[in-house]
Amino acid sequence: MTVAVCGFGTALPPHELRADEARAFVERRLVARRPELARMLGVFDRAGVETRRLCAPLDFFTADPSFAAKQAEFARTAPALATAAAERALADAGHRPRDVAAVVVACSTGVAAPNLDRDVAVRLELTRDVRRAPLWGLGCAGGVAALALAADLARARCAPILAVAVETCSLAFLPSDTSRANLIACALFGDGAAAVVLAPGNTGPVVRGAATTLVPDTADAMGWDVVDEGLKVRFAPTLPGLVRRHVGGALDRLATEAAVRRFDRFALHPGGPKILAAYDEVLAPPEQDLAASREILRTCGNMSSPTALFVLDRIRRTHPPAPGTQMAVAALGPGLAIESVALQW
Question: Is 107 a catalytic residue?
Answer without folding.
Answer: no
